[in-house]
Amino acid sequence: MSAHTDYSPHKNSGLKLFIQTVLARAYPRVIGQQREKSWMIFEIVLPMLAISAYVFVYRAIGAPEEYIGFVVMGGAMTAFWLNILWSMSSQLYWEKETGNLALYIMAPNSMMAVLLGMALGGLFASTIRALVIVLLGSWLFRVSYEVVSFWQLFTVFFLAMVALYGMGMMAASIFLLLSREAWHLSSLAQEPVYLVSGFYFPIKNLGFWIALGASFIPLTLGMDAMRQLAFPSGTKHGFLSVPTELVVLLVLCVIFLVGAYFLLAYMERLAVREGRLTESRR
Amino acid sequence: MIKTRRSRLPDIVTLWKTFRMATWLGWKIESNWTDPFLFAIYSLVKPLAGAAILVVMYGVITQADFEDPLFTYMYLGNAFYIYVGAILNGLVWAVIDDREHYRTLKYIYTAPIHFPTYLLGRGVATFLVSSIAVLVTVLVGVFFINVQVELSTINWPLFLITLFVGVIMIAFMGLILAGVMLLMVHHMWDLGAAVAGALYLFSGAIFPLEILPPMIRWIGYLMPITYWLELIRRSLVGPIAEEFPTLTQFSSAQLMAILLVLTTFFSVISVISFRWCEAKAREKGVIDAITNY
Fold first, then answer.
1. What's the pLDDT tens digit per position in A128-145?
2. Is A37 near chain B, with CB under 8 Å?
3. What is the Cα–Cα distance from A218 to A213, expressed in whole angstroms?
């Protein structure tokens, strides 16, 4: 039998193949949530308790009630940052270690579609986790919201997520060249980013220049704008005005998505040239 | 249920060898991925950032009133809690790393060593790394933000004994999680950090237990970490610890006795639960299962 025998009666290509690849890569992440039910305890209940610790710190020092809402919202958003670090940035490294990366590259699909599928699958799981934490936290700590504009709130969230996952896709391609240090870099980017992005307090408190520097992480401006739009005294704690933050987020979306496209192609070429796609320096 | 071959405890020499080699291996894995300078920065930035979050939260609300005893209470509790997060996480990651990353768990498991002791040894490596982080965090607090620790007033014997007992207690708690991890997929990598985060709420690490609603406050009194942190505070900053009424009715000796009893209790629980999880993992055939989503 010829090695070139075509077993498939029909082959998809172009946009159809791209979409199929996205769905195929997103599928195991969505289904994985159904198969391993324990995530509800480890990704919702336990993080909720950790967030509660910060709520009680604010209570212990007599903080105004809106800070409780800031913590609940910030705590929920950690789901997205953790997903970016561990299931986007370091994922291609993990795929390399487990031997899947070479298969992805050999298959006739776009790596960009693989990354997008990873992003959509991860976004789905993280959104559920974040939503449950917001609902649970708001109910437990009686957080009151006063949404100025649902439309703007949705737009901010959407742009922040697109920019954030674009950033994750960019980081994934950089991580292609890394070895064991990939884990450590991901681990290193947790607490420092919680700090500079203002997950548990308004970013304005860190001063203009630090807040400006942290604004390249989409969650910084995304959270700042969402707090301004969702809480009665939010505007008082805002770093920049919401329209300005929307524009910056839009710019970040373009930068990160275009950057991910070019960087992925470049890093893939570089990794192929240096023979590091199947390398495993454990 | 499958009868585990691990049920027989090997002789003390084997146990010691296993522990020593696992500690050495853990240290190498933790530290040899980069040069010592980068490793030092990596080991410090994460815990310092964690402490800085609390400092900013406190500073924003109190207009930087770092003289208040509550700040020292909170800062020291958070600094020593680094051990809890690091050791719990270290033991969970030892399972994930060996099973799915290095894929050596089946070889280690079938080697003539005592598997739980091996995991505890791996945990000690994270203890060593986190000790540097705890020390630097405390020093930064003392020198830059007025955490009120004075060398001359530290009760060193109480501090050292408490630290020693506490690390054993945390290691056994980590063993419970390592057992659970044997039954779970790798994307639950956050298990150690998640449990440490949850216990953060109940242990009085960053606020006195009186702040918690009465209906959940009792959980804090069942946690050995609560007594451990209280003894650490008493040994380092006795007068400040006395200002918070949570455990003032107990003397330090009584607290130590409670800590020892709870440590013994948790160590028994951890051995039983680890054996159960191990047997279950063998029964399900997941000792060396690799998952990838």
1. 889 999 999 999 999 988
2. no
3. 11
Mutate to test the interface with B, among A27, A85, A87, A184 (most CBs of B within 10 A): A184
Q: Work out the pLDDT band at B292, boundaries 50, 70, 90.
A: low
- Do residues B34 and A184 touch, judged by C-beta distance below 8 A? yes
Q: Is A28 on the interface with B (CB under 8 A)?
A: yes
Kindly state the percentage of chain B with pLDDT values over 90: 49
H helix intervals, A8-87: 14-35, 39-40, 46-60, 66-84
The ipTM value here is 0.85
* Predicted TM-score (pTM) of this structure: 0.85
Q: List CB contacts of A235: < 8 A, sequence separation 6 or more.
A: A228
Q: Which residues of chain A from 231 to 260 reach within 8 Å of chain B, CB to CB?
A: none
Question: Closest partner residue to A60 among B47, B60, B207, by Cβ?
Answer: B207
Contact A148, A229 (CB under 8 A): yes
Check whether B253 has a pLDDT greater than 70. yes
Is the pLDDT confidence value at B5 over 70?
Answer: no
Sorted by where each begins, the domain ranges of chain A are 37-273
Chain B residues inside the 8 Å CB shell of A30: none
Alpha-carbon distance A206 to nearest alpha carbon in chain B (angstroms): 8
